[in-house]
Design brief:
Length: 454
């Protein structure tokens, strides 16, 4: 797929890939073998009929491709941009055995963008309302999916969002150059056009509790994500200039600091920025730092590139743009002047045997300490759920790190009538896995309300 050059894009927040032309899309779609037993569908957490929509693109019938897509996926423009297809549907594509797999994600993005250019989206014929009501707490990918599915089953759905904009991690976490906010808004608008009622600036656990919602609604789905950042708890971590990735990216994305001077949102613009971590959030932070004017933007990761959880495409783009990869490196303390971070002490690491994650365990090399000058540090080592809802909901059990305990096949929690899915259950994961959890929960909610069986 054609994209901005690294030299050009590092100075702007515009989306990096340009997307397929109609001719590109048809040519790519025609590579699909339309297998009799398509393994790609089994590799998709939301069960998209991949050969179905791809074959329609191959025929040039883009409108029909949209219809096939939206039978299973209400967020195709988002999935086509941020879903890790290389580890899911494309990973099991039969063509991959001998050549490149079909560009399923790129075709998904194409068809969503084609639809947007035609004007207002086509709204499917919905069944009559069944008189039952469901509350969805959180408007991220899990919440949007469960709301979109339930409203198309005949339920009255109300979605409650704590922030002033809907979209969850799609608007506060993922940068504009990877997922433009206008596209997220387009997907949210489609959900509300289906009939979902959206209420923003509504903090469940403060404005109203889960128990209060249960007095009005027949069931409640919790999809509030994982927004509580982790830190390393090492000396000097409370110095000015050291931030969580949550704050750093929220200021840039949701609060639009990247649009200065149109939006005068305060954000640190360091010249020597160290980002701790090796996931997509770390790559997003390091690439954002460059666009905010950093002369040096460094990834500090304690394992090798092989163990990095970030998407291959993300690492590739970061390297192209000049992000420095300091691998097998672990920060041990920060040193400052006048309250601001100035240096970071690190240890070199080597890899031992695999740990519980399946990745090789990093082991410190004795006597390998060294200092690196930094004026900004972004900690992107993970996050856990905000404890507000569990703390205000009697009977809702949580695991050690605060994740809500829910059945992975149904989304049912330990509290009757309450379901949960996405990062609030699994911890920080991918957009598409959260969507898959939303789909499973929607089916389970429908079954529960119809049968009354818990």
């Amino acid at each position: 797929m054609r994209e901005q050059s690294a030299q050009e894009r590092v100075h702007n927040f515009n989306e990096v890939p340009y997307g397929y032309t109609e001719e590109d899309a048809v040519a790519e779609a025609r590579r699909c073998l339309v297998c009799k037993k398509p393994s790609c569908i089994a590799g998709c957490p939301v069960e998209i009929d991949i050969p179905g929509f791809v074959s329609k693109i191959a025929e040039g019938d883009f409108k029909a491709a949209v219809r096939v897509m939206k039978q299973k996926n209400v967020l195709p423009a988002v999935c086509g941009r941020v879903c890790p297809q290389e580890d899911q549907c494309e990973k099991v594509c039969v063509l991959r055995k001998k050549q490149e797999p079909v560009g399923i994600g790129r075709l998904e993005r194409f068809i969503a963008d084609w639809e947007a250019r035609q004007g207002p989206p086509e709204i499917p014929v919905l069944p009559p309302r069944n008189g039952k009501k469901v509350a969805v707490v959180g408007s991220g990918p899990a919440g949007l999916t469960v709301a979109g599915d339930l409203v198309q089953m005949g339920y009255e759905v109300a979605m409650f969002e704590a922030l002033h904009k809907a979209g969850g991690v799609l608007v506060y976490g993922i940068p504009e150059f990877r997922l433009p906010k206008a596209i997220v808004q387009r997907e949210v608008d489609y959900i509300t056009a289906l009939g979902v009622k959206l209420m923003t600036s509504f903090v469940v656990g403060r404005t109203r509790t889960i128990d209060e919602l249960l007095q009005e609604f027949d069931a409640v789905f919790i999809g509030t994500g994982a927004g509580l950042p982790w830190f390393m708890n090492i000396p000097g971590e409370n110095l000015n200039g050291i931030y969580s990735a949550n704050e750093y990216l929220t200021r840039s994305n949701l609060m639009k600091a990247y649009l200065f001077p149109k939006y005068d949102t305060p954000i640190v613009r360091g010249k020597s920025v160290a980002v701790i971590g090796g996931g997509n959030v770390a790559m997003d932070s390091a690439r954002t730092a460059l666009r905010l004017g950093a002369a040096h933007s460094m990834i500090i990761y304690r394992r090798s590139e092989t163990e990095m959880p970030a998407r291959i495409e993300e690492v590739h783009h970061a390297k192209e743009e000049g992000v420095e990869m300091h691998l097998l490196t672990l920060p041990t303390r920060y040193l400052g002047e006048n309250g601001w971070v100035k240096q970071m002490e690190c240890l070199k690491m080597e890899l031992g045997e695999p740990d519980a994650s399946g990745r090789r365990r990093p082991i410190a090399v004795k006597g390998s300490e060294f200092m690196t000058p930094v004026d900004t540090v972004v900690c992107a080592i993970g996050q856990s759920p905000n404890p507000l809802i569990p703390q205000t909901t009697p009977g809702l059990q949580v695991a050690k790190h605060g994740n809500i305990i829910a059945d992975e096949k149904t989304g049912r929690t330990t509290k009757k009538g309450v379901f949960a899915g996405g990062d609030i259950v699994t911890g920080a994961a991918t957009v598409i896995l959260a969507m898959g959890a939303g789909r499973l929960a929607a089916r389970s909610i429908d079954e529960y309300i119809k049968t009354g069986v818990w």
